[in-house]
């Protein structure tokens, strides 16, 4: 894929999430004229979890992407599908879920809580040992 080619209007991206909570997704139809913010809006419509634009953080080559950056400036020339990492922030989890997450010895599964809450619960359990009073 050569984004320097004036004929190329769209591209595809491989999107990965932390801890593989979602399977890798190939997102097609990404307009190279979009900004990162436009891409986030696209993700909020087509990505399986439909994350809010304000909750998304996109990382490429180890760098957090600012909203004003254009896609065409990110992926100038490459022969493979570029890989982005999508990280979503957690906003005010329900109190019941928070209490459930930090109970000592309780099994935490992704099906019992949302994805972001699942990640937080696993980190708390590992580093705090499931103690309350966080």
UniProtKB/TrEMBL annotation:
Which Gene Ontology MF annotations are present?
A: transmembrane transporter binding
Pfam families noted in UniProt: ubiquitin (PF00240)
Keyword entries, A-Z: Membrane, Transmembrane, Transmembrane helix, Unfolded protein response
Q: Where in or outside the cell?
A: Membrane
Record domain Ubiquitin-like: where? 11-74
Where's it mainly located?
membrane
Any one GO BP annotation for this protein? endoplasmic reticulum calcium ion homeostasis
Q: What is this protein called?
A: Ubiquitin-like domain-containing protein
Q: Which organism is it from?
A: Crenichthys baileyi (White River springfish)
Lineage of the species this protein comes from: Eukaryota, Metazoa, Chordata, Craniata, Vertebrata
